[in-house]
Structure prediction request, 202 residues.
Amino acid sequence: MFYALAVLLLANLASAQVFQIEIANTTVEYGSTDISISCVVTNGSTLGTVFAISLKKSDASVVSITTSPNEGISWQDTSLQNRNGVTANGSLSDVSKAHLHLYIPSSSVVYPDDEGTYQCTMSGLDLMNTPVTENSESVFLNITGYIDTTKAPDLSTMTVPSSTNPATPVSTPSSSSGCELSRGSILLMFLTILGCTVMQRS
Prediction:
């Protein structure tokens, strides 16, 4: 009977959730919402030791905490590390409270770099000193409200307002050929009259 209870207890402990990812806001408003992600041991009763916790985004490692050689934070995404106000901290000394936390202030959130699927991984030993690796569920972090100010506006969609005072057409001065034709006609008439007068006198 006691053997059956022991087996049942171990089965319940094994089925309990040991490790999970916690994201404060899975939808982030660009420029307004901070990004806060934690990798947390939620049931340390089945673990003897935790020697590493890591956070990755879209299968690329971001940051981790390890006990080798000394407990400390190790950055894989150095570009993120160098952003203003970005921090990472954690602890592995107490198995029941082992965690890793990443914080990105809203002013340092970058789109689309920070958008994607996040997942945590924990490595350690169980109570029998057997190696254990636990992966959290994958959670997609969405960033909204981003406006690309470097993109040139689409002029084809712009509406040009009509003028309330349409320009008055500028009249083009008429050619002087009309004036020259009139002068020629007068001269021809004068010569004709003069010729008739001379003929009459002769």
